[in-house]
Amino acid sequence: MKSLAIPLLVYATPVFAAAGDGDWASAYSKATAALAKLSNSQKVGLATGVGWQKGGCVGNIAAISSIGFPELCLQDGPLGVRYAQQVTAFPAGITTGSTWDTGLMYSRGNALGTESKALGVHVQLGPVGGPLGKIPVAGRNWEGFSNDPYLSGMAMANTVAGMQAAGVQACAKHYIGNEQELNRGSMSANIADRTNHELYLWPFAEAVRANVTSVMCSYNKVNSSYACENEALLTGLLKDELDFQGYVVSDWAAQHTTTGSANAGMDMAMPGDNFGDNNFLWGQNLLNAVSSGSVSQARLDNMATRILAGWYFLGQDQGYPTQTGWTSWNGGGGGPNVQGDHKTVARAIARDGIVLLKNENNALPLNKPASLALIGQDAIVNPSGPNACTDRGCDTGTLAMGWGSGTCQFPYLTAPYDAIKSKAATDGTTVTLSNTDSTSAGASAAGAAATAIVFINSDSGEGYITVEGAAGDRLNLNPWHSGNALVTAVANVNKKTIVVIHSVGPLILETILALDNVVAVVWAGIPGQESGNGLVDVIYGSTSPSGKLPYTIAKQQSDYGTAIASGDDNYSEGLYIDYRNFDHANIEPRYEFGFGLSYTTFSYSNLVTGSITSPGSGSSAPGGVSNLWDVVATVTATVTNNGTVAAAEVAQLYIGLPSSAPASPPKQLRGFDKLSLEAGAGGTVRFPLRAKDLSYWNSAAGAWVMPTGTFNIYVGSSSRDIRLTGSLST
Ligand code: NOJ
Q: Which letter, b or e, does each residue of 697-714 get, where b requires 16 or more Cβ atoms within 10 Å of its Cβ?
């Protein structure tokens, strides 16, 4: 066994990152110089939000003019700038995840950051690495990217890099174990150390490696201590082991005590008071605690230094825009139009995130059908407007965002009906619309049409809003509004029934798939403002579908082996979530993790695994000990497009750890590469494997360990469509 990393377990003093890891050293020297000019009261001010709705953003820190520090604006959220108008409403994290396209992940992050900066937002509250999504019905899974830590981690890193390159500070949230909405403010997520490292912490480690400047501690308890008061989490794991250089900000009112949070390693209290009750746990209370010695001067200095360093790290001390013309609290009116050409990236993700699940006899792409019936309320924009419901808290009209704080105002929403109608006009196709979920109306529209497209959905969100009986988490994995009945009614009368699904996460599709006349199923995710345009690109074939499922679709809900906990959650499933569970327990999924059809077929050949080299020596660096990230092997393969249309394929690499490792999932994603190929063309997919990718977490040693022996290497088109197998040995 090669022990790769013995984490430093000393009280957090930021270790300056090595060259190439961003310029934290320079940020810290500026922060230290500025700190020397501040009184304790000013330092406490940096660490304490001004109070709920007391500033223009959802979170605000008062300005300190003597050091040029502005009123700091922290604003949601992960898919667009919340409450502002004339912003881009991007596809949600989950649909970004289903593109498996790191370039689009970066571009989306960059566009988000550009809009935030132009609006004077200093800290954008995203991306979401937790919930990871271990429970399929959990309300906020759609805000994150995938329940696979590697895919989520790549999306986190690329989003953070894109946002911060645009100049805004990113905030990786919610740290950690906020895997459901029910009782999120009181339950304990009891997560074993190995499980935490290999699943839940992994995406955060990637964000830290990408130099994220802030991390938001979550509402729940972890191992019986509140996340924002948990020294092992905030100081031990995050600041020491992951060498996080930035600051920990509380989720809104997730702080519970004055000294407990401070001494655990929390650095910034938001919104400051408890949602407007004027009860500040920090502020004067923190000042008193420092005077009395229950919080050390060093800890206060460290909080303030970290906050200043994050601001300097992004160069926000130089000519940063101020929030002008809009606030969160006046209905979001005014403010500059910051959309630029970002609808292009929004459309690309809406398009490339679509997963084609079923396509019998090439039912798709559509080829100038004589007549088309579009059925279901999900085909149209909410008749009261796309922003009619506060924080998108209703499931009326086409679903393009879940609900809660992770939403923004739609500048417009192109629904499927809008985009298909335009396309149909150019084709001479007659379109009939049945814009309700009425089965009789749907059947009568479908009966007369050559092709029927039924639109159904499934929504979820944050627990402060209840929609149709769902208090955040979904009630089950069935389509909403009796979607199964609607599809059945249509399929009973139309032999070419196509089902388009907008969903926050997996659904049980057995009823729909049992209908012979359902010839195609299109999984259109949570697509944002460009919903209809992205859909038209795929269903009419100007682009071949290239999305792959970022989670498993089961035959029955119980197959997942995880459910909403009514009390504390002991994470007894351990490492076996989603496909790791289906593989381990030998359960056949309906559509496996990583699955997605194309309008072409691909062949795989020429697997070259090479050999494993030893990692170099390691030193502490953001993300963990530096040699964890050394590439120790590179696997390559050839992928060839055998069909007649250009298309992209997401080639995936899974590993099986050697038998010398402790019991582990049979397959774990450790690489993917998306390749665009012209018809008939071939290309090379590359999977660089880092030392961490070939290691397991050894709790006893407190280290990642690369086991000796033979690693199984599986390369294929999904987690179960493995085309090439090989091995790598230590
Ligand atoms: C609570 C949510 O959990 C978090 O994601 C959000 O950033 C804050 N509220 C602020 O709105």
A: bbeeebbbbbbeeebbbb
CA distances from 537 to 57, 98, 675 (A): 37, 16, 19
CA distance 451 to 522: 14
696-727 residue pLDDT tens: 999 999 999 999 999 999 999 999 999 999 99
Active site residues: 251
Note whether 658 and 708 are within 8 A (CB). Answer: yes
CATH code 3.40.50.1700 region(s) in the chain:
343-549
Measured CA to CA in angstroms, residue 688 lies from 123, 174, 300, 515, 722 at distances of 32, 29, 41, 43, 18
Residue 15 has pLDDT above 80, yes or no: no
331: pLDDT strictly greater than 80: no
Q: Domain 343-549 is in which class?
A: alpha beta
Closest-CA residue, ligand 1 atom 6, reads: 405
pTM of the model: 0.97
In the reported structure, the alpha carbon of residue 420 is separated from the centroid of ligand 1 by a whole-number distance in angstroms of 36
Distance spanning both ends of the chain, measured CA to CA: 10
**C-beta separation of 507 from 477 below 8 A:** yes
Choose among 170, 180, 169, 176: nearest CA to 191: 176
Q: Is there an atom of ligand 1 within 6 Å of 391 CB?
A: no
Q: Which pair of tokens denotes residue 178? A: 């906020």
Burial call 38-59: b when 16+ CB within 10 Å, e when fewer: beeebbbbbbbbbbbbebbbbb
Backbone angles phi, psi at 57, to 5 degrees: -115, 175
Structure tokens at 133: 């999504």
Question: What does the pLDDT read at residue 335?
Answer: 84
* Peptide linkage before 131 cis (omega within 30 of 0): yes
Give the rounded percent of residues in the chain with a pLDDT score beyond 90: 95
> Is the minimum distance from the CB of 178 to ligand 1 under 6 angstroms?
no
Q: What is the mean pLDDT of residues 496-504?
A: 98
Q: How far apart are CA 506 and CA 508, in angstroms?
A: 7
What does the alpha-carbon distance between residue 487 and residue 499 come to, in Å, rounded to a whole number? 7
User: Is the distance from the beta carbon of residue 58 to the nearest atom of ligand 1 less than 6 Å?
Assistant: yes
Ligand 1 pocket, residue 251 CB under 6 Å: yes
Task: Give the tens place of pLDDT for each residue, 348-365.
Answer: 999 999 999 999 999 999
Q: 710-716 and 59-61: which strand pairing?
A: unpaired
**CA 465 to ligand 1 centroid distance, Å:** 13
Superfamily of domain 600-729 in the CATH hierarchy: Immunoglobulins (2.60.40.10)
Which residues of the chain form CATH 2.60.40.10? 600-729
Ligand 1 geometric centre to CA of 129 (Å): 13
pLDDT 10s digits, 152-181: 999 999 999 999 999 999 999 999 999 999
